[in-house]
Amino acid sequence: MKVIKSIKEMQAFVLHHKKQGKSIGLVPTMGYLHEGHLALAEQARKDNDLVIMSIFVNPLQFGPKEDLSTYPRDFNRDHSLAEGKNVDVIFYPAAGEMYPQHPSILMNVNDRTDVLCGESRPGHFDGVALVVSKLFNIAQPDRAYFGRKDAQQIAVIDLMVADYNFPVEIISVDTIREENGLAMSSRNVHLTASEREQAPVLYQSLANARTLISEGEKDSERIIAFIRGEIAEKTDGEIDYIEIYSYPELKTLVELEGRFIIALAVKFSKARLIDNIIITNE
Amino acid sequence: MKVIKSIKEMQAFVLHHKKQGKSIGLVPTMGYLHEGHLALAEQARKDNDLVIMSIFVNPLQFGPKEDLSTYPRDFNRDHSLAEGKNVDVIFYPAAGEMYPQHPSILMNVNDRTDVLCGESRPGHFDGVALVVSKLFNIAQPDRAYFGRKDAQQIAVIDLMVADYNFPVEIISVDTIREENGLAMSSRNVHLTASEREQAPVLYQSLANARTLISEGEKDSERIIAFIRGEIAEKTDGEIDYIEIYSYPELKTLVELEGRFIIALAVKFSKARLIDNIIITNE
């Protein structure tokens, strides 16, 4: 497995292989890999001749009061895990390589970002769109892999691919969970012991909400109140949001019909966790 | 020569040829081709296996009071001219193909646009950056060709390629002029007979300014006053701007040293013309 830190070298490598007709799968990550990332790498391995995993903690998608400086990092561990999944190249640029200066041309995402994480993290998806554009231009993948835990991110990247005609197929992969239901996340490492016991309630409340809906509940306010009650009662977390929207449009729903997402964000002492389920109710 | 109107078909064509190791040159135009465009096509023909010329009058780079509706168009004429230069493909999408809806993700160009055409045409370069990004993703060129008459456009596209890591080499080609010095432009067709006689004064005043500078003039205000005097005296045009900046940074200059641009825009009755010269003064 190669590790490439230079954009120029990465582009030369890609150009060489594309000229030979090789297909390329890109797995963009911020590192501190978990089973979720590895599921993306496995899928990319099945679909493509070459698999590139990028590891880059993108400063532009963190707000001034967010956890950029404490975001967990362990390159050696990531290296072994990626190698175990037969990744061909880790693209591992320094921040100064990706941003030799602050970009002069920014992307403004004006749809699908006034709700959920877009509302509580202003500018977050502008930073995501910019870095994903850069990574697409650097790795020039045929396919790029994203986890459904970041469902709003996928909705935004789908918009970006449509608006900018990126020649990239976006593949979304199911959220990987612990047996207790907790979604895998690099940020789980920052949970205290008691928070770690409480955190599975996030998914359990979503799963129970799904059961209520399958039993006929169509009122989103009651569903939200139910989840809010569960999390308030069973965890010490502070609820950032619990919301329900159509998916992937992220528009307000009158009744719980069609395809929709129930998404939440909960702040624990040192980690803000997100999770969601997407339901299709015919 | 092929004419392709569908983005999907254009991308499939490009993918097929890239897998065979073919290099691609893109000549982005708004059509109504003149010698300037054809010089770009000639250069692209020399440098690449395949030459794609796009013809698309991009609504997003026109302001509400600008000449989108009267911008000259003649596809049959363009077709013959492009064929004469051995262009392989004309990419000729409808507006609804490029913008099935107004883009949700816009680009904001925050550098090199507070002066010259960027100042008199707010939003113009945001629209240019967006459409050029789309064209790069659609045609996936190794090289893209732009005329130096649009010197600020080249400065902005250089920024964009740097910020977004587009794997595209930007080739700029000298402005093509009539014998009297008038820069070739699709908009020249809108000049009245008497304006057409006056319009060469734009370049002649720039050329005379260059002579003054080569003779030792270092004061940009005096150069600007000289050009203003020439144009006011010898044409009926209304001066939009005459400005001098470092190039390509487009920063204010104290003295006329280093590499700089003298650029102007003049409004005639039905056409706003631009021209410039770039000087290196050691």
TrEMBL record, chains A, B:
Binding site for ATP: 30-37, 147-150, 176, 184-187
Pfam families according to UniProt: Pantoate_ligase
Residues at which (R)-pantoate binds: 61, 153
Enzyme class: ligase
Catalytic activity: (R)-pantoate + beta-alanine + ATP = (R)-pantothenate + AMP + diphosphate + H(+)
GO terms of molecular function: pantoate-beta-alanine ligase activity
Keywords from the UniProt entry: ATP-binding, Cytoplasm, Ligase, Nucleotide-binding, Pantothenate biosynthesis
TM helices/strands, residue ranges: none
Binding residue positions for beta-alanine: 61
Subcellular location: Cytoplasm
Enzyme Commission code: 6.3.2.1
Pathway the protein takes part in: Cofactor biosynthesis; (R)-pantothenate biosynthesis; (R)-pantothenate from (R)-pantoate and beta-alanine: step 1/1
Family: Belongs to the pantothenate synthetase family.
NCBIfam families in UniProt: cyt_tran_rel (TIGR00125), panC (TIGR00018)
Function: Catalyzes the condensation of pantoate with beta-alanine in an ATP-dependent reaction via a pantoyl-adenylate intermediate.
Subunit: Homodimer.
Protein name: Pantothenate synthetase
Organism: Cytobacillus purgationiresistens
